[in-house]
Amino acid sequence: MNSETIKNLVKDWRVALLLVLVVGSLIGIYLAPPNPEKGLEGNLQFGLDLEGGSWLQMEFQSVVVTYSTDGSVGNLIENLRTGLDADVIQIDQNHLEIRKSVSRADLEPIFAESDASIVGYQKGVSALTADEVKRILSDKVNALGMQDARINLLTPTGSDYPQYVRIELAGVDMATAQEIVGKQGLFEIRIQTTGNETEHVLYGDQITSVGVPQRDPGTQEWGVGFSLSDAGAEAFRNAAIEHGAVDNPRAHYLMMLLDNETVYSAPLSGELAAQIRSGPVRSLSASTGLGDEGLEEAQALQVHLRAGALPVKVDIVGSGSVPAALGEQFKMVVLIAGVLALLTVGVVVYYRYREPSIVIPMLAVNFSEIVILLGIARYFVQLDLATIAGLIAVVGTGIDQLVIITDEVLHEGRVPSPNLYLKRYGRALGIIFASAATVFIAMLPLALMDLSTLRGFAIITILGVLIGILVTRPAYGKIIMAILSK
Fold first, then answer.
1. In 3D, which of 138, 162, 161, 135 has the Cα closest to residue 149?
2. Which residue from 57, 62, 61 is spatially nearest to 150, judged by alpha carbons?
3. Strand positions, DSSP E, 204-260
């Protein structure tokens, strides 16, 4: 093609759109934000398979009971709470959620005493509780910047209620994963009185909001701001005055505990002591230090302050990890597989047409489709082995559809007139749209289901189909028409 033909091609909206999306995708992968230390990986997010990391599977310590009663439901719930020392939630008029792992045999006497009987018994939690657990866990991992951490509720076959929750954390070792996710319990703030003695001030339910880690412009120290309820602020002020913290703040440390383990400890500042003397203070800030270490401590403290305890106790019943070195090896294997797939497709296509002017644009358009797909997917999908399989599938189906366009246009081995070209091109697009619709319908249920591996594969496949029929196929049609018309 001469320069005039190329200029006309670039001015066509279909080709221009393709070029704009390719450039935008490259900017998103490598320049928004710049990440030179990652090399070719850029800003792509990798999953557990390719980045290394850990997974945990936790079991809800709870049961759901179907019951019938001729007496008071309120009395039944109160008897269960008292007898089991556990939270009991009424799901509906026939179901109770008992937030404790207890056998049916242990429940039956309490039901009998309350003029009630057990109709059905299943381990697990209600859908509302399961969603709340998933939300809290998501808040914990998202607060640490772990994009697209996979959290899935698992319901055993034959059961109506989720019994397990599984979470996958890429780039996180097992000890850290258990610290972030597995740890849950009572958050408490205490104040130092004399010596090593401390006194209770308030619990986590008095914390109404938590800010993001920020660096003080003056001291350059990292810290986390949080707010207390009116009752919490009053309790904090009373404790500080009663134990002399407002008079000698440096001698009275404020301690934050999770499950009776200290997660933060620092003396009151003189400024805060003066404010407390004047009245209750709702807005507080906990400083964690300088540099990267201070930032990491601020992020961890933010999780403890914001997330609180899970509504139901969970036990870790399964875990596993992929070493980072093995993840790097998988990346190399996947890269080789992708390159080989593209080269193999190129060889087969060249064998069919024996014309570089057709093969090179076909491969270039197919490669641009992958670039656009990665540029979009990098914002909300982690790349793991399943999503890479989806990318390879997109390469195959993309070339297949480009071959359909080329074969329809070159029907009978001759270059058609413009009118005939448009007719054949429209027929090829009809075949491609029908095929794309079939793939879309087949993949949609998998994309909507909460199954981590299959969901990633389905999302990538659907995105590839949409990019193909909306962007790359129309652009290729214009390009191949310009090539053949010469």
1. 138
2. 57
3. 207-210, 214-215, 222-228, 253-258
pLDDT of the residue at 149 = 72
Hey, what are 386's tokens? 């399943």
Rounded to whole angstroms, how far apart are CA atoms 50 and 329? Answer: 8
Q: What is the pLDDT of residues 325-357, one digit of tens each?
A: 677 787 888 888 888 888 888 888 888 888 888
Question: How far apart (Å, rounded) are the C-alpha atoms in residues 184 and 188?
Answer: 12
pLDDT for 468? 92
Q: What pLDDT is attached to residue 125?
A: 93
Buried b (16+ CB within 10 A) or exposed e, 56-84: bbbbbbbbbbbbeeeeeeeebbebbeebb
Amino acid (one-letter) located at 454: L
In the chain, which stretches have pLDDT less than 50? none
- The closest of 94, 92, 93, 84 to 62, measured between CA atoms, is 84
* Helix, strand and coil percent figures for the chain, each rounded to 5: 55, 20, 25
Give residue 373's pLDDT: 93
Q: State residue 437's pLDDT score.
A: 92
Q: Are 447 and 459 in contact (CB under 8 A)?
A: yes
Contacts of 366 (CB under 8 A, 6+ apart): 342, 345, 395, 398, 399, 402, 472
This model's pTM is above 0.85: no
- Tokens for 209, please give them: 């909001």
Distance CA 282, CA 260 (A): 24
Of 324, 309, 208, 217, the closest CA to residue 257 belongs to 309
SS3 at position 133: helix
Question: What residue spans of 257-355 are helical by DSSP H?
Answer: 270-278, 291-307, 324-353
Helix or strand holding residue 378 (H, E) = none
